[in-house]
Amino acid sequence: xxxxxxxxxxxxxxxxxxxxxxxxxxxxxxxxxxxxxxxxxxxxxxxxxxxxxxxxxxxxxxxxxxxxxxxxxxxxxxxxxxxxxxxxxxxxxxxxxxxxxxxxxxxxxxxxxxxxxxxxxxxxxxxxxxxxxxxxxxxxxxxxxxxxxxxxxxxxxxxxxxxxxxxxxxxxxxxxxxxxxxxxxxxxxxxxxxxxxxxxxxxxxxxxxxxxxxxxxxxxxxxxxxxxxxxxxxxxxxxxxxxxxxxxxxxxxxxxxxxxxxxxxxxxxxxxxxxxxxxxxxxxxxxxxxxxxxxxxxxxxxxxxxxxxxxxxxxxxxxxxxxxxxxxxxxxxxxxxxxxxxxxxxxxxxxxxxxxxxxxxxxxxxxxxxxxxxxxxxxxxxxxxxxxxxxxxxxxxxxxxxxxxxxxxxxxxxxxxxxxxxxxxxxxxxxxxxxxxxxxxxxxxxxxxxxxxxxxxxxxxxxxxxxxxxxxxxxxxxxx
Length: 480
Prior knowledge:
The chain folds into two domains: 2-167, Rossmann fold (3-Layer(aba) Sandwich), CATH 3.40.50; 197-468, Alpha-Beta Barrel (TIM Barrel), CATH 3.20.20.70. It is 37% helix and 18% strand. The protein has 17 helices and 19 strands. The strands form five sheets. Strands 5-1-6-7-8-9-10 form a seven-stranded mixed beta sheet, sandwiched between helices. Strands 12-15-16-17-18-19 form a six-stranded parallel beta sheet. Strands 2-3 form a two-stranded antiparallel sheet. α8 runs parallel beside α9 and α14 packs across α17 (458-468).
């Protein structure tokens, strides 16, 4: 049986971060010039290939620059096409199913991902969609391939029997993650992936745990399972060794929160230190301290990304972050003093947001002085605790981080505040000096040339728009 896994084309000419194994990644537009491998698809494909007789391939239409029609044409010889979906792209993902069916009615189509899982009863009604695979896809896909038309026995499957929609029992998430094979990297063309922020020459991604034990109300990390599961340090180290043997020298641990288990992180650091791998990860400020950050840095960690979210304690509490502002400042100072590159993520426009709290966020971003800051307009995502609090607009294409407002501040004004945040952070005179001091003149020059000449991504758009004009209501006209 031929199984093709599809990462759909770019959305409005932008690369989207979407991953069927990490529910938080549900169609996030690029902030800077980067194109990352669909590592979740590679993990799923590896499992399916190992446990069935299927011939698996991956079509990464983003990396290959394929149009929707070209992507469909590549899939028509498959027995089943499994399409990774996201919220802003779901209409187009359905169109891809239709295009495949129009070329070859015999190809079965299946949708995976957070949006498809959440709206499975609605989406399965599309004539061109044969299956919705809910939750983590490895085991359901395997059982689907083994079903021989007995689809009622496939856990996690929503399907049609005649005109009737059938919803099978949920699939139980795999608890022993060490039992899973490493990602099928041979199915991806790594020459096509890039990221201007990496320190090494060739990037790669690893998912070493699934889920998150924390309770941020805006995040969909628990959409598939409320249970946090992790691979053993030994298992992770083996995969990193394999990656190093491939010549990939820059790894992103793509877990929701890599630093949940302190002992595991220390073991991983000890195990990969000798490999001379550059690596980075996503973290929370309440899961690290000076000793752990030093061990991470010594083992090759050069960058750590924190979800700060707001400079207002009131907003942090509304979001369910569990942070105190003073602790955020403390951890950033420690990380910066050690020499780690820091990335701070912020949310603007969360319900309850005010103009005053946004200005506090911009002020905190500059005070923390991270190497990179990412400002995002809030949007509720399927599977997040806050999602059902809203009456949704139906046009999912607008769920593209900036087209809608879910607070009292109008959407157009939120976008102006986002531009203001980017300009005031990145066009500070001290910012370039800070980067040169930490990573040197050569790296700073190369990185900035790549950014300015590539001219893509949300960050670039906001800076250019702000430079061209548009004053804030508070009268600010700085840096224009």
